[in-house]
Amino acid sequence: TIGIRVDNLFTEILEIALTARYTKRDERKKFLEELSRKLDNLKFFVTLLWEAKGLDAGKYGQLSQKLATTGRMLGKWIQSLS
Questions:
Q1: Cα–Cα separations (whole angstroms), residue 77 to 28, 29, 32, 64, 74
Q2: What is the pLDDT of residues 24-79, one digit of tens each?
Q3: Are 46 and 55 in contact (CB under 8 A)?
Q4: CA-closest candidate to residue 5, choices 33, 37, 31, 43
């Protein structure tokens, strides 16, 4: 289901973020780019879950705001490596 996919993406994002954090700087960008793709997928599936009424509007608003903030932070992290 969509909920399971969202849970799995959260877990994968945490795993990739930890890996990126402890990877050598010159190898880190590939992990961060993968992390960015997973985060985009998560945003999509969270929106899909909300549209399917599997998530109420209040929780969706809070979650989407946090995901957007995380995306901006990730973008700055990737930019700092360039």
A1: 10, 9, 8, 20, 5
A2: 998 999 999 999 999 999 999 999 999 999 999 999 999 999 999 999 999 999 99
A3: yes
A4: 43
